[in-house]
Amino acid sequence: MEIASYYTLFSIVAFVLGAVIGSFLNVSIYRLPRDLSVNRPRRSFCPACHAPIPWQQNVPLLSWLLLRGRCAKCGARIAFRYFGVELLTALLFLAVWEFFPWQIAIAYWIFVSILIVATFVDLEHFIIPDQITIGGAIVGIAASAVVPALMETDSRVAAVVRSVLAAALGYVILWIVLEGGKIAFGKKRVELDAATPFSWTRQGDDADFMVGDERSLWSDYFAREKDRLLLHCDEATIDQRTFGSEVMEFHYNRVRVGTDEFLLDTVDRITGLAHELEIPREAMGRGDLKFLAAIGAFLGWRGVLFSIFAGSVAGSIVGLATLLVGKRVWSAKLPFGPYLALGALIWMFFGEKFVRWYFQLISPA
Question: What pTM value is reported for the model?
């Protein structure tokens, strides 16, 4: 068989393998944030009716197209994300195979899978599970030991040391940003146009918090035990007890009104009218710190710095675009994980070219 034929065959295998792995990544994206096992049940199931999907209806890429994005049993719509993840994984697996030697390509296939799961979970749930971040860092260090070329060395010991240091660098840099951002921008003051109805309604272990038309989950506001949310009220009712013009000081587990304090575990509903609120906020989630550590474990310290730079630029562009096309609401959030993942991918494929271009730019001679 000619070399060109081998090349074509392995390229097809890389694409098909990527599509198959993408199908498993869809399982992880759905189950991990819901604390479901990725192994049990072994067969995929419809998110709507939970009926098991037989293998002939679970062929990567083809099944979604042939079934027109619907469950064969209940007819419920299957999100395009399932097809998109399979196609994206297949294309990235193919690109990695084309760009890198086979040893590095196999390690990067694992890395790309981690990036994809982290991206789509973060986009939907604003979290990145520890299985992906901490697990990814451990796998990255192990991969560097097996393939030292990932850290641009022939020594396995040196590769492991570099991988560990790069992971630590990624975590520490974002930790400094997180803590500095909390000091400088740790709370946001929102002045409402007029007295606006608000409600706090218990929902199991959490609560729905609604101000005007803005609905959010109560737990989203409290990343730290010391965080507090201030609600400047014209009037308020806690269960059956009514208050006049007061400032309600909320912590994650209690609320204080004047000299009275109520444990939120004993409260079912809080309502009233408010004209101003101060909400705690974080520069980013702590999952991003661990995610960048995983990126560093695979890409080294330069990949860490570039991912932060490229991710920040991409996030700023998207943030500005949302302001231009429509007014962003005060409760809106933008996850940072997908932008870090984008920066990591750009560094993987074009990092060395970018470094050469940059040094030529600052030193043409």
Answer: 0.84
CA distance 99 to 96: 5
Looking at residue 49, its pLDDT comes to: 86
Q: d(Cα 294, Cα 114) in Å, to the nearest integer? A: 9
308 vs 356: CA distance, rounded Å: 19
Backbone angles phi, psi at 353, to 5 degrees: -65, -40
- Name the 3-class secondary structure at 50: coil
- Return the amino acid letter for 76: A
Q: Is 210 helix (H, G, I), strand (E, B) or coil?
A: strand
Q: Are 232 and 247 in contact (CB under 8 A)?
A: yes
The string of pLDDT tens digits covering residues 103-126 is: 999 999 999 999 999 999 999 988
Contact 170, 304 (CB under 8 A): yes
Instruction: List, for residues 291-325, the tens digit of each pLDDT value.
Output: 999 999 999 999 999 999 999 999 888 878 877 77
User: Which pair of structure tokens corresponds to residue 336?
Assistant: 């940072």
The CB-side HSE value for 92 (13 A sphere, CA atoms) comes to 27
Radius of gyration of the chain (CA): 24
Query: For strand 187-203 and strand 214-217, is the pairing parallel, antiparallel, or unpaired?
Result: unpaired
Q: pLDDT tens across 260-281, in order?
A: 999 999 999 999 999 999 988 7
CA 58 from chain centre, in angstroms, equals 26
Instruction: Render pLDDT for 53-89 as a digit per residue (tens, 0 to 9).
Output: 888 888 899 989 988 888 888 888 988 999 999 999 9
**Rounded Cα–Cα distance for residues 261 and 255 (Å):** 6
> Distance between CA atoms of 193 and 205, rounded to whole angstroms?
32
